[in-house]
Amino acid sequence: MLARRLPGLLPPLEQDEALEVTQVFSAAGLLGPGAGLIGVRPFRAPHHAISVPGLVGGGQVPRPGEVSLANHGVLFLDELPEFSRAACEALRQPLEEGEVTVSRAMTSVRFPARFALVAAANPCPCGHLGDSRFACRCSLYDLHRYASRLSGPLLDRIDLYVQAERLTADELTAAADAEPTAPVRARVLAARALQRARQGAENGRLASADLAARCQVLPAARRTLMTAVDRLGLSARGFHRALRVARTIADLAGSDRVEDEHVREALSLRHLPIIGDREAQLI
What we know:
Layout: H1 2-5, H2 15-27, E1 43-44, H3 52-56, H4 66-69, E2 74-77, H5 85-89, H6 92-97, E3 99-103, E4 108-112, E5 116-119, H7 140-147, H8 152-155, H9 169-173, H10 181-199, H11 208-215, H12 219-231, H13 236-252, H14 260-268, H15 275-282
Parallel strand pairs: 1-2, 2-5
Antiparallel strand pairs: 3-4
Helix pairs in contact: 7-15, 11-13, 12-14, 13-14
C-alpha cells in the first residue's frame, strides 16, 4: 500500500519522459488502438514467479521487461527473496546504468530502465524473527538460506533500508494522524527544483565525480563518512550512494551544505541486519 503511494509524491511526467514511457509500452504491445501519450508515472508490481526475460526484457524478438515498463516510475517487488536468484541478479545492470541491453545473435537492443525500486521482504521464512509476541520457527539453516538469496552486490545498490514493526490491533484501528500526501509532495518537488537549479539534474542522475563536487560536505560530515568506510566496510558504490542520500536529505531540509547530521541519517538508513544479528535474535 505504501509503495503504491510513492508515484503520488513525484512530479508529473515531462514531455520527453512521457514520450519515452509511451514508446516502451508501445514496444511491449501494451497500448490499445488510438491510445495517446501516457501522462502518469508507471507503477509495476510483477509476481515473484516472473522469469528473467519478463523482468528485464528479452525474447526472440527483444521486448521490454518490467524494469523498462517502470521507467520514470516505480518498480515494486514484494517478497524480494522469493524471486529467483537469476532475476534478482539481473537487476544489477539497470539499477547501476538506468538501461538494459538485450543481446541476440544478430542484434542488440537497449531499453531505458530508470526507475525507483521499492522492495519488501519478511525478516525470515516464517515471518516472526524478532517479533516480541510470536516465536520464530526457523532453524539457523533456514535463516542462512533465506539471507543468501540476495547477494551483497545487489543489496549494495539499494540506498535505503526501513524496518517495519508489526502493528498492534489498537494501532491498526486507531484514527490515522499521518501527514497527508500534498505537503510531503511539495517538499519533494521543492528539493528536486533546488537540485536542478544547482546542478541541472536531480542528485540521482549525477555521476560520482560530479556529486562530490556539488555536495559541499562539511569537515565533520566528511570524517563521519570516512569512519563509516572503515567500520561499516562501505564499498566505493556504498560510499557514493550514502553521500547522494545525505545530499538529498540536506536538500529536503533546505540546507546548502551537507552537515554531519545529514550524513548520520543517510548511514542509519543503509543499515541492513546481517545474519549474525538474526542468529542472536533466534538464540
